[in-house]
Each structure stands twice: as structure tokens, then as C-alpha cells.
Specification:
The protein is an alpha/beta fold. The chain has two domains: 170 residues, Rossmann fold; 152 residues, Rossmann fold (3-Layer(aba) Sandwich). It binds NADPH dihydro-nicotinamide-adenine-dinucleotide phosphate.
Length: 433
């Protein structure tokens, strides 16, 4: 704690994993002796850098860039870049730490890392975003490589930003090294299904949880917070699986649409026009917009928090429980506070932590890397089938591990223990590094 003073979210993420590990350490004295847990909690490398850029009026801005290369035990560092004013070292470290275990759960050969900047792309012109991305990559490129560190998108970093970042990498290095970044455009090394992967994956994971108790999405009311990449494709897959998403949101408020969110309108408003969610209610007669307020007040059977960390607290969890919610599946990273998780447990709500339920994005990034390495391009159907298989396998692995370690049904413990064991065994095998 003293070494990482003030890094609240990082402390929260580490504590949540450590809470699950007593049962593992009781069976593995070697991890205690070699301080494997302590080593896994300390990033292998942290890079913090200045990002100067000029806006359209010629004014100079200085932002801060980060890349935390957390663990290369299982493969090259892999994890997204986040551009949001709230980004600081503590946030990047919490995300990197989570990423290590998430990537292990996918069963793919990828280590964990995360990065980003406190730059806010909201309201910025394309030219400003491009100049920022070019300046950011002018430092970051020296730390990247298809066998070293492979970033992707996250909050505030979508196809546009990945394009500018890759363009600058290519220009500086004179290498069209497709495997150096994922989430690329389809015409220049991107993979089908990567855009949809995290939202689809969370829906597949929820479906697997329901199937385990003989249920399905059929007839279920679902709320999905956010209206970004994860949320939009979560809505799409939930509807395909038979559920009805009745509410989604952004940081200004939420919309409720009892007819079910109209995906075409949502995509037009959020992906094409980059407008606020209130615009959805302006266009759809069955919808209403609630400014501020909590989306978790909307009664639902399944809640899929897909916006940001700590967006669902103990009070919101109590409201969900009172309204009869039965499943909470994290599309975002650590969206539920520890209090909220406690409430879910007490209320008997089935809960899937983000490191398991939102792993579909990074798993499909690893599929993109496979396609880049083999100069191949898979069909949408083939890639989606692989994604579904991976998500169902993660669910099975978390469930079986929870059972094996004496807590049947506890997917938090299952995910933490299964992810930790995979990483810890590799770290141990590599000697004192
Ligand atoms: P986007 O930037 O595409 O969308 C984020 C959404 O969340 C927006 O609707 C945004 O609203 C809302 N949001 C962001 N910050 C806040 C906040 N402080 N309060 C309320 N709403 C907020 O990001 P993604 O959809 O890619 O990411 C969402 C979450 O999923 C993050 O936790 C991310 O780490 C996680 N994730 C993403 C993956 C991916 O493949 N994209 C993979 C795995 C996890 P507004 O526009 O108003 O800010």
C-alpha cells in the first residue's frame, strides 16, 4: 500500500484477487516461498511520458501518457489504451492487473498490460485527435512490437484512434507490422468480430450462466449501462439470444425504452453522430430520457454494467435486488464496488466478474494476432463461433475451479483462482524474474 500510495482503484483490484487466494496458497507452499503473489502484483515495467500537441486554434496542450507492462509470463503484454480525463497511474495499473488474469482465462498465449492518457477526445475534431495520437505514438512506439507489447482500444479509443496510432507507428518504424496493435480496420489487418467481441462475449457468458441452471435469455428484461463499444454490441447479441434490453446510458443519463432498444437508432446516434444518449429518446417515441439518475433503478432480470469502474455501488445493488434482478454480468472492468458485490452475494444474485465476462474482446484480439501472423482472414461466422466457444469455456473453467476450491457457484473465486494459477505456474517456472 505504501509503495502505491493513492492508487485507490489498484488497491481495490488487488484486494479483490487476494481475497480469493488463501485456498490456493494453502495448497502451494512454493508460491509463498518464492513470493509469487508479490511479484505478480508488481508491474514488470511502467512507462509515463509527456504528450504535447496543438489544437485547431494553435493552442498547445500537454497530456500525460502511460503504458504499464504488467506481466509477460504467458505472452507479449496485451491490453487496451484508454483516453479519458480520469486516467492516472492508479487506473492504468488496476486495469493492467485485471488484464493479466483475464488474458490467462482466455487460454491464449498473451500477457497483460494497459495504457492510455488523460486526453479527452470528446468534442475534439478528427484533426486534433490525429495530432494527439501521433504525438502519443511518437513515444510509445519504442516500447511496442508484435512479440513485446500489443495495445488495443478501450474507453475513448475506437477504430478512428487505432487507425491514427497504427499509421504513426508504421511511419516511424517503416514496418507494416500488423500484429503490433489490434482493433484495426478490416482493410488493413483487422479481424471480423473484433468490434462486436466484448459485448457479444458478455452476452454469451450470461447465456452460459443461465444455461447452467436451465434458463435462457428468453423473455428476460435486461439493462446495459453505457452506450459505447461494449454496450452497443451487448444490446445486439442479447436481442439475438431472445432477451429485451430496456435501458442504456451515457455519462449524462439513461434512456428507457419498454419496446426494447432500437439498435439501428442507437448505432446511428452513438457510432455515426457521436451524439448524447438523450438524442435516442428524441427519435424513438416509446423511449424516455432520464437526466442524471441511476440506470439501476430500472427493474430488470439481468444487469450488464458496461460503462466504467465503480459505476454500480451498494445502494444501486440493493435496488437491483429489491426489483428482482437475478444476474449481474460485468461488461466493463470492475464496474461493481466491493459493497455491491457483497449485496449480490447476500441476495443470491448470480454474479460474473469482468475479468471473466468481458474477456471476449481480448480473446478476439488474440484471434486477430493469429490471423495477422498467418496472413489469413477468417469469416465472421468462423470467428464468432471461436468467440462463443472461448466464452463458454471460460465459464466452465471458472465454475469448475470454484467447485474444486470449495465454493460452488462463486465465479469471482473461480476466475481469480483459475487466472492466478495459470500465471503463477509460468512465473514460477521462469525462475526469479
Ligand atoms: P467506450 O468509450 O466505447 O464507451 C464507454 C461508455 O461508458 C460511454 O457510453 C460513456 O459515456 C460511458 N462512460 C464512460 N465513463 C463514464 C463515467 N465516468 N460515468 C458514466 N458513464 C461513463 O468504451 P468501451 O465500451 O470500449 O468500454 C466500456 C468498459 O468496458 C470499460 O470499463 C472498458 O475498460 C471495458 N472493456 C472494454 C473492452 C473493449 O473491447 N472495448 C474490452 C474489455 C473491457 P460518455 O460518452 O458520456 O462518456
Amino acid at each position: 500500500l505504501r509503495r502505491n500510495r493513492g492508487e485507490t482503484e489498484f488497491h481495490q483490484a488487488v484486494r479483490e484477487v487476494l481475497d480469493s487466494l488463501a485456498v490456493v496458497l494453502a495448497r502451494h507452499a512454493e508460491f509463498l516461498e518464492m513470493k509469487t503473489v508479490e511479484r505478480i502484483c508488481e508491474p514488470e515495467r511502467q512507462v509515463v511520458f509527456r504528450v504535447p500537441w496543438q489544437d485547431d486554434r494553435g493552442e498547445v496542450h500537454i497530456n500525460r501518457g502511460f503504458r504499464v507492462e504488467f506481466s509477460s509470463a504467458l505472452g507479449p503484454y496485451k491490453g487496451g489504451l484508454r483516453f479519458h480525463p480520469s486516467v492516472d497511474l492508479g487506473i492504468v495499473k488496476f486495469l493492467g492487473f485485471e488484464q493479466v488474469f483475464k488474458n490467462a482465462l482466455t487460454g491464449m498465449p498473451i500477457g497483460g498490460g494497459k495504457g492510455g492518457s488523460d486526453f479527452d477526445p470528446k468534442g475534439r475534431s478528427d484533426a486534433e485527435v490525429m495530432r494527439f495520437c501521433q504525438s502519443f505514438m511518437t513515444e510509445l512506439y519504442r516500447h511496442l512490437g508484435e512479440y513485446t507489447d500489443v495495445p488495443a482500444g478501450d474507453i475513448g479509443v475506437g477504430a478512428r484512434e487505432i487507425g491514427y496510432l497504427f499509421g504513426q507507428y508504421k511511419r516511424i518504424t517503416n514496418r507494416h507490422e500488423s500484429g503490433v496493435i489490434t482493433g484495426k480496420g478490416l482493410g488493413w489487418g483487422g479481424a471480423l468480430v473484433r468490434t462486436e467481441a466484448t459485448g457479444y462475449g458478455a452476452a454469451f457468458f450470461a447465456d452460459a450462466m443461465m444455461a447452467a441452471v436451465g434458463e435462457s435469455f428468453d423473455g428476460k428484461r435486461v439493462t446495459i449501462s453505457g452506450s459505447g463499444n461494449v454496450a452497443v454490441y451487448g444490446v445486439e447479441k442479447v436481442h439475438q439470444l431472445g432477451g429485451t434490453v430496456v435501458a442504456c446510458s451515457d455519462s449524462s443519463g439513461h434512456v428507457v425504452d419498454e419496446e426494447g432498444i432500437d439498435l439501428d437508432v442507437l448505432k446511428q446516434v452513438k457510432e455515426v453522430e457521436r451524439a448524447r444518449i438523450a438524442e435516442y429518446a428524441e427519435r424513438v417515441p416509446s423511449a424516455s430520457f432520464v437526466e442524471g439518475g441511476s440506470i439501476w433503478d430500472v427493474p430488470c432480470d439481468v444487469a450488464v454494467p458496461s460503462a466504467t469502474q465503480n459505476e454500480l455501488d451498494g445502494d444501486a445493488a440493493a435496488v437491483l435486488a429489491r426489483n428482482g434482478c437475478r444476474y449481474v454480468v460485468e461488461g466493463a472492468n470492475m464496474p461493481s464496488t466491493p459493497d455491491a458485490v457483497r449485496v449480490f452475494r447476500e441476495a443470491g444474485i448470480a454474479f460474473a466478474p469482468g475479468k471473466a465476462a468481458n474477456a471476449g474482446g481480448v480473446a478476439t484480439s488474440a484471434l486477430e494476432m493469429q490471423q495477422n501472423a498467418s496472413r489469413d482472414r477468417w469469416t465472421f461466422e468462423h470467428t464468432e463461433a471461436r468467440l462463443e466457444e472461448i466464452m463458454r469455456a471460460i465459464h466452465a473453467r471458472c465454475s469448475e475451479t470454484a467447485e474444486e476450491y470449495g465454493s460452488p457457484g462463486d465465479l469471482v473465486l473461480g476466475a481469480n483462482v483459475a487466472g492466478f494459477l495459470e500465471v503463477a505456474e509460468a512465473v514460477h517456472a521462469h525462475g526469479l524474474v
